[in-house]
Amino acid sequence: MINLDKQKLPRHIAVIMDGNGRWAKMHTIGRILGHKKGAEAVRTTVRTCREIGIKYLTLFAFSVENWSRPSEEIDALMSLLEEYLDKETNELNKQGIRLRTIGNIGSLYKTVRDKLDNSIKMTAGNEGMILNLALSYGARDEIIEGVKKITQEAQQGKIRPEDITKEKFGNYLYTKAMPDPDLLIRTSGEYRISNFLLWQMAYTEFYFTDVLWPDFGKKELLKAIAEYQNRERRFGLTSEQLQKNISANAKI
Ligand code: FPP
Questions:
Q1: What percent of the chain shows pLDDT beyond 90?
Q2: 18 is catalytic
Q3: Which atom of ligand 1 is nearest to the CA of 60?
Q4: Which CATH superfamily is domain 8-140+178-251 in?
Q5: CA distance 112 to 115
Q6: What is the pTM of this model?
Q7: Atom 8, ligand 1: residue with shortest CA distance
Q8: Mutate to test the pocket of ligand 1, among 16, 18, 92, 194 (most ligand atoms within 8 A of CB)
Q9: Residue 11 pLDDT > 70
Q10: Is 117 a catalytic residue?
């Protein structure tokens, strides 16, 4: 039984869902069936995060680099996403979850974009949790796009270069108005961030597990959060400074 401290929950969890292909190989079935099983793990993770009170969940569902996979695999991933939206939008509404996306959404198939638009509209009023799907997402592209927007605005005199701050720049990214992830989970024993949320993860705690994504269930998620709760997040300060800040805040 894993007990979590409700006062110390990560506000935002980001997940690199890796290992569907290896899971399929292990079970001597095709890669696409591995992704199908991966989509089931998505359902469990979304439900569990909502249940325990996580406010933002960002899932890396399709990277810009994934466009180079075999076309049958891309088609299957897109169909799984459509199927997820068809089947789960009502469920998201029931659970008070709002859907959002980050990434180059314009590059997705029109059928996928239409379904995403519909689900985003249908869930727009929900305030329980934000489910943020990273689709056709690449962090370097996101940063370059942000730089282009901000330099255009500077040329138009809307912002002065000397007024550009870290906080302001954050508003030019796909994730504007979202807090940075507190916890990143990556499954399948790989220790990389693979061009995911490079700007936003400056102070994120990383949790790596050998478990393959299709096997990542409720217990695995709780284990990751419990480990996060045992970490000391210092944001560049010393332990002593942190303790002082905590006691000072407690007095206020
Ligand atoms: C990585 O496994 C996973 C992906 C590239 C896609 C993630 C997609 C899903 C979990 C299913 C559909 C998503 C939704 C939101 C319904 P991999 O293929 O790279 O695995 P491998 O490294 O073992 O080959």
A1: 90
A2: yes
A3: 7
A4: Decaprenyl diphosphate synthase-like (3.40.1180.10)
A5: 5
A6: 0.95
A7: 61
A8: 18
A9: yes
A10: no
